[in-house]
Each structure stands twice: as structure tokens, then as C-alpha cells.
Fold this protein.
Amino acid sequence: MWCRLAFILTFLQLSTASDMDNPIIIIGSGLSGFAAARRLMDNDINNIVILEAENRIGGRINSVRFSDGIIDLGAQWVHGQKNNLIYEMTRNNFDFGTTPFEEMYSTFVLTNGTKTDQKDIRKIVDVAYKIIDDIDDLEDPQGSIGETFNKKFDKALKSSKLKNIEPSVIELMKENIERNYNGYTASNSWYDLSAKKNSEEGKASGNQYLTWKKQGFKTFFNFLTKKAPNPAQYLNIESKVQLNKKVTNIKYNTKDETSNVAVTCSDGSSYSAKHVIFTPSLGVLKKYHESLFSPALPQQKILAIKNYGFGTVGKVFLEFEHPFWLEQGKPFLAYEFLWLEQDKKEAKSTNREWMINITGIYVVDQFPNLLEVFLGGSNLNEFETFSDSKITEDCMWLLEKSLSKSLPKPKAMTRTKWLTNDNFLGAYSYGSMDAEKANIGPKDIAESILNADESPILLFAGEATDEKYPSMAHGAVRSGFRAADEIVKFYE
Ligand SMILES: Cc1cc2nc3c(=O)[nH]c(=O)nc-3n(C[C@H](O)[C@H](O)[C@H](O)COP(=O)(O)OP(=O)(O)OC[C@H]3O[C@@H](n4cnc5c(N)ncnc54)[C@H](O)[C@@H]3O)c2cc1C
Ligand SMILES: *[C@@H]1O[C@H](CO)[C@@H](O)[C@H](O)[C@H]1NC(C)=O
Ligand SMILES: *[C@@H]1O[C@H](CO)[C@@H](O)[C@H](O)[C@H]1NC(C)=O
């Protein structure tokens, strides 16, 4: 037994010694960076350095303490179960919660505070979401999601179900549906969303809104490092991370197979590696690809970086003493706002235009005293530059106005700033009309750059490089595995 163990140990040492010559740098400690490290280490490739610009690990997973638990400023829901790597890696060892967006209706309120007939509105919601489901399954989709929706919705309006509903309500609801769709996809307009690109993406079926209850999405990092479910298998990926290392230049040479990639950081430090996996967001690539890479990236990749969509969403969490939104015995999911023209005008003239982009104010699973404001679009600059106190006051203004009563002030608030953070520059990617016209997609962003000996020296991972689930957290994980596999394959 001893003997055998000694033999195995020597063998292990030998194999790690050999990869000393082939250091790997992963840029970014988000889901894709950690997934890549995990897959490399699973294959006994341990000579890894992860360079992270922020002072924390996680990237667009940012679980923070709030109220009496942990909430998510970044990804919050596990979207789907079947073929969802995140769900599959955790299902047997984590008991998920859910936000019942698909089982319950929101409470729709007119911004002037007059109560409105929820029954009519629910009929519109049913018809609209049926159309949106159908768009996902179209055989040969043409044009934008917005145009496709309008065509089908106009047809549905002529059907009996919606015939007696007041046209003004239908118009208000149409705006609401668009706002929700934009919020979900981080696009500023559904006329900029390609129906074709949308249909090329996969969708993990099953519950689309699983939550991490009070523990936050960062729980998943324990599964990536194998701390969970069995701590004995822990891979110490955290120890490979160097924080506050903002990469400013990546110099590579495709002609000379003996040359390493040189990575330089803003603090002047530099690193040398045989393989570099680049994972920062498409927003970072759009703004910095010219200064980041020397020589310049291939034309096709630049075309893809420029044309694939990247948008923003925002969130505000408000904590209250009591859940004023609960009426005795009535279940509650969310407020959604039907903006009347004069209220839009008032919002604009009082510096509250950002509020028109709120998709809804939702309950938060397991936090009975919290509300979550969600907003979509790429025009979130104002929202992000306003102070916390103004944002809170504005939220209360809208709630009091639409519910037509005075309400208690929140005890605490926290909010996001993804767009103005130079290490993200937005929230997630989307299949834009420009992407369709340029005939590019995540695959072109993903394409590795090979050396003369076919070794992948510069690899691209991250949410926007995943062909099947771009934008999603599980897409990010998949992309990290994919990039690591390319390196592993090279050494086989
Ligand atoms: C508000 C919000 C809500 C979301 N909600 C959901 C959801 O509910 N469900 C879901 O599935 N997905 C959701 N997403 C998407 C999900 O968060 C992402 O798909 C995923 O986390 C992206 O991981 P990544 O590794 O590709 O990128 P990132 O997490 O962005 O990782 C890249 C890392 O690179 C670092 N970096 C950037 N520039 C540099 C540099 N120059 N040098 C060094 N490091 C650098 C960044 O700081 C970051 O840590 C949401 C995203 C946001 C922002
Ligand atoms: C609010 O707007 C609705 C729809 O336009 C209208 O029917 C109602 O009278 C308005 N209420 C007030 C108080 O102005
Ligand atoms: C945000 O609101 C503006 C109007 O103020 C509108 O033009 C834009 O389309 C909205 N964006 C989204 C994502 O709803």
C-alpha cells in the first residue's frame, strides 16, 4: 500500500513538474475563469495564474450581505434545469428556491394611482407571453423580435379574447411587455434584437427562476472548486488569483512557437505564459481590444466584437420594516407600472426619466421585507451616477404615486453600477440585428488564436463566447470548460 502510494505521488510530481514549463494565465476571476481553472486542474495542469482587475473574486457574480442574508447584485437566478451545467453540478446538494414569475401575475398599476382592471390585463399578458414563447420556436425567423411580436400581436388583437379591451390599455401593456423583454435581454430596444439569433440560442428547459435562497449565487463557486459537496476534494483555485491586477496589454506572436505571450498590468507588473485565456466582458473587448492586443486581433473577431450586442440592466434592493405590499391573505409577486403620458412628462421634467425603464418591483425569495427594483436598457448612465438617496427617494415617489398612498421609508438600500464600472461596462450580451447583418456570433468571439505549432496561445472564454447559452451564467461556465479543454487536448 505504502509503496503504491509513493509511486503515485512521484508520478503526480513528475506530471506537475512538466507543466511548469507551460504556465497558463487566466484573465478574470468570474465564472468562466474559475470554470477554466477547474477543468485544467482536473487534468493535473496546475501552473495557473488568474489575474483579476477588481479587488474581489466573482466578476458578474457579486453576492453581498444585505438585510439578514446575502443578495445578488449580479446574476441571481439559475435559468433552467435541463442541460444547465450550474443546475446539474448542484442539484443533488443544493435545495433551490424560486421566484414565481411564471406561476403568478404581477400587480399592474397606472402611474396616476387609479386602480385598473387586472382581469383584462391578465388576458393581454397571457396572449403576449404565448407569442413570445412561439417566437422562440419559429422555423425561419426574420427581422427583429419587436417586429415579429407586433405582427403576431396585431393578429391576436382581432381575435375574440382581447376584442373588448380598451385600446389605450393595450398600448400601455405593449410598452410594458417590450420593457420586460428588454430587461430580460439587456437590450435597449427589441427592434435591435435579432429573431434569428434568438432562435439559434438554446434554452435550458425547466424552472427559469431558481434562487440561491439567502446564500447568493457565489455558493456556486464552492461547487466549481469542489469545496462542496466534499471538502476533501477541494481545489484551491482562490490561491491562484491575484487581485487588483488590471491587464492593459497582451503581446503574442503566432509565428515563433517558442515565444511566450507577454501580459502587462496597469501597475507595471508583467507575466509570461504559454497560453492565455481571456474572459472579460464583451463590453471590455468593445472598448479596449485595440489597446489590449498586440498585434491587433484578426478582422473576423473584431467584426464580431463590434457587432454582437452588449447591454445593461440595473437593480435596486430596498429593505422595509414591514411588507406594505401584502394585503391580508393575498399573494403578491410584483408591481409593474403602466406609464401614462402626463406622468412620463412629469418624470422627465423632474429628473426622474430613468424610472421609465423600470420593468417591475419584485419580491425577493426568502426575504419577506425586501423589494427589488429591476431596470433594463443601455441608457442607465443617469441611474448609475445618481446618489443612493436620490434613487431611494425616486423609488418611493413612483410607488406612492402609483399606489396613491403614503408609504413608510425604507430602512436600507443597495444598488448596482455595472455600466460605469470599467471592468464590465454593462451586464450581458445579446444577439443584435447588427450581428445578424454581419453574420457573426459568439463562435467568432470565441475563436482561439493558434501558434505556428497549432498550440492555442490566446483563448477567449466568457458568457459572450458561448454558442449555446450566451449571456447566461451557465453559458459562462460552459465557455470556461471549452477553453480549458482546447488546452488539455493540445497536450494529449
Ligand atoms: C445585473 C446582472 C444580472 C444577471 N442576472 C443573471 C441571472 O439571473 N442568471 C444568469 O444566468 N445570468 C445572469 N447574468 C449574467 C451572468 O452574470 C454572466 O453571464 C456571468 O457571470 C459572466 O461570467 P464571465 O466569466 O463570462 O464574466 P465576468 O464575470 O465579467 O468575469 C470576467 C472578469 O474579468 C475581470 N476583468 C475585466 N477586465 C479586466 C482586465 N483588464 N484585467 C483583469 N481582469 C479584468 C472582471 O473584473 C471580471 O471579474 C446577470 C448579469 C448581471 C450583470
Ligand atoms: C388615471 O388615468 C386613467 C387612464 O387614462 C383615467 O381613466 C383615470 O381617470 C385617471 N385618474 C386620475 C385620478 O386622473
Ligand atoms: C427606456 O426609456 C426610454 C424613454 O425614456 C425609451 O426610449 C427606451 O426604449 C427605454 N428602454 C427600455 C429598455 O425600455
